[in-house]
Amino acid sequence: MRFPSRKIPKKEIVDGGTDSVACEAGAIVYALRRSRRRTVGITVHPGRSVVVRAPLRASLARIREFVASRAAWIEKAHLHFEQRPPKAAPAGFASGEMHRFLGQDYRLVVSRGRADSVEILLGCLCVTTKADPSADRVKGLLENWYRAQAGIVFLDRLVLCHRLLAGEGIPFPELRIRKMTSRWGSCSSAGRINLNLWLVKAPMACIDYVVVHELCHFKVRSHGPKFWRLVGRFIPDHAERRKRLNADAG
Ligand SMILES: [Zn+2]
């Protein structure tokens, strides 16, 4: 009597381990999942995780060829996640809550006083309110303070970074600071750079990376190898800074 050969049920997924394929921009490492499907599909998740779903019998060579053909798309998807500010837990606005500024954490100290003010004193972010210090009022005062700081810091870094790129012949751009939920920065063909207000919470090295990134877009619009070569000439460790930016900023 022969044992019946085991048939893979329709929904079962066979873990194919991890595999990688070498591409122009570096190796693409992916988790391979096989199942009774007809086509090869790729999904990209935050943290540079790539999952490739393939038919049970598809050859590894065919799968690799398909992954390699989608290299540009995969890189674009990674960038999409990396340039998105992480969804941080909303900060509270009572004394003791932690708030970040230029990569440093500061404990919030809320008190009543003669006038509204925000200042950093002895490692604390001190918010003084004339009226009842409700969460809304503290939030509003803090946001105004962050905006004022961002105005000073961003312009300062833009001047320095623009000087760093002096040989590129980029006209000095107009700077705008906006609250953005999905990007750290953007630029317009009208010669303007928009920076996310909350970028002021990030370390200075990360702010510089975003500023240089946007300045480089005035020369190269797309995120191809030419663009990254240009960014790399001024910020050789741009990949680390980008990672740090997305891991640190809250
Ligand atoms: Zn860009």
What features would you describe in this structure?
This protein has six helices and eleven strands. It has 250 residues and is an alpha/beta fold. The protein folds into two domains: 14-73, no CATH class; 98-248, Zincin-like (2-Layer Sandwich), CATH 3.30.2010. The strands form three sheets. A four-stranded mixed beta sheet has the order 1-2-4-3, covered by helices on one side. A four-stranded mixed beta sheet has the order 5-6-8-7, with helices on one face. Helix 4 crosses helix 5 (225-234) and helix 4 packs across helix 6 (238-248). It starts with 13 loop residues before the first strand and ends with a helix. Bound molecules: zinc ion (ZN). Zinc ion (ZN) is lined by residues 213, 217, 223.
Topology:
Blueprint: E1 14-23, E2 26-35, E3 41-45, E4 49-55, H1 60-69, H2 71-82, E5 98-101, E6 104-112, E7 117-121, E8 124-129, H3 135-164, E9 174-178, E10 185-188, E11 192-196, H4 204-217, H5 225-234, H6 238-248
Parallel strand pairs: 2-4, 6-8, 9-11
Antiparallel strand pairs: 1-2, 3-4, 5-6, 7-8, 10-11
Helix pairs in contact: 3-4, 4-5, 4-6
This protein binds zinc ion.
Zinc ion binds next to α4.
